[in-house]
Amino acid sequence: PVMEKINTNIVTLTRFLTEEQIKHKEATGDFTLLCHALQFSFKSIAYYIRRATLVNLTGLAGSHNTTGDDQKKLDVISNDLFIEAMRSSGKCALLVSEEEEHVIYFKDSRNARYAVACDPIDGSSNLDAGVSVGTIFAIHKLAEGSTGTQEDILKPGTELVAAGFTMYGASAQLVITMKGGSVNGFTLDNGLGEFILTHPDMRLPRKRSIYSVNEGNSLYWEDNVKEYFESLKQAPEGGKPYSARYIGSMVADAYRTLLYGGIFAYPADKKSPKGKLRILYECAPMAMVFENAGGQAVDSNMRRMLEVVPEHIHDKSGIFMGSYDEVEKVKAFHKLSA
Ligand code: AHM
Ligand code: MG
Fold first, then answer.
1. Fewer beta carbons below 10 Å: N end or C end of the chain?
2. Of the residues 67, 220, 250, 317, which should be mutated to test ligand 1's pocket, given the most ligand atoms within 8 Å of the CB?
3. Which part of the chain is the Fructose-1-6-bisphosphatase class 1 C-terminal domain (predicted)?
């Protein structure tokens, strides 16, 4: 009998991070340790999401976060898991979480040089239906000499050291990118308990006829946004109109867009003039992933998303992100095309 071919040269996330560290001669290993703590939080969140229906973790926790959202039990657990992972890493000086009104300072982590922003569970409205949700993270480095202040996180995405997300779907998929680097995707092998590099150097297709937006908001859209989406539904000569795909979990919609191409948008509108999604832990990290994969991300003023500087930690923005050519089209409808 022919022996099944087993790959014995597997690149785990741990190995990948070690190899990255070796490439950077000045690296101290702190970033690597921070990422180890991150990956543990993703594994445990994935574990609890999988078991949620079985161990009474569905539904509301009876509390709400600062932004007024009702918190789900899993929102609370995931937030706590994430905070503990960052605290215990000793490498994180401060943390901004969607679930926490204020910045959390880890004063005991004396030599910590990183500031992290996260949305522990993005897309929580989908949780109880077992639909994909995700965790988004963004990592900044403290300014030279700083021991960690709010200014270390209120920075534009262009200064991010690393960013990414984990989608908890049919499998857990972790996507990470570092400054000036490529985008790499890992799949959690539940048997091994390791993230395995399955999508090296991810590149978005340059264009694709898929759009992803909550069309229920179209009543409130500005005219150029309405006209843009209307145009996608027209069939060009001999062609077909765009397909609509909207999960309502940014991480899942973004992951599909990353693989298949197309456009994802949550525009600012008349009801929410600043948009819905948060700059620090939703828009900026996604924009970094999309740009490093060859795509683009802009806000509702057609400004490069990565250059937007939040004034407050929970500030929001409109966003359009996706394939390079699809975002060009959005810009053209805003009469600012390059
Ligand atoms: P959340 O962090 O409270 O889950 O909210 C963010 C989510 C995104 O994942 C998603 O893109 C968006 O909200 C969906 O909003 P809507 O239900 O308005 O379409
Ligand atoms: Mg969110």
1. N
2. 250
3. 205-334
Residue 91's pLDDT band, with cuts at 50, 70 and 90, is very high
Q: What integer is the mean pLDDT of 209-214?
A: 98
Model confidence pLDDT, tens digit, residues 39-48: 999 999 999 9
The predicted structure's pLDDT at residue 337: 42
Q: Is 286 exposed, middle or buried (0-12, 13-18, 19+ CB in 10 A)?
A: buried
- The amino acid that residue 136 corresponds to is I
ipTM: 0.95
Q: Where are the beta strands (DSSP E) in 142-274?
A: 162-168, 172-178, 183-189, 194-199, 210-212, 243-244, 263-266
Model pLDDT, residue 121 = 95
Substitution site in 133, 214, 263 for ligand 1 pocket (most atoms within 8 Å of beta carbon)? 214
Ligand 1 proximity of 157 Cβ (cutoff 6 Å) = no
The answer, yes or no, to whether any atom of ligand 1 lies below 6 A from the CB of 123, is yes
Q: Is any atom of ligand 1 closer than 6 Å to the C-beta of 124?
A: yes
Tell me the C-alpha distance between 15 and 145, whole Å: 31
**Residue 125 half-sphere exposure toward CB, CA atoms < 13 A:** 5
As a whole number of angstroms, the distance between CA 120 and CA 252 comes to 14
**132 backbone dihedrals φ, ψ, rounded to 5°:** -55, 135
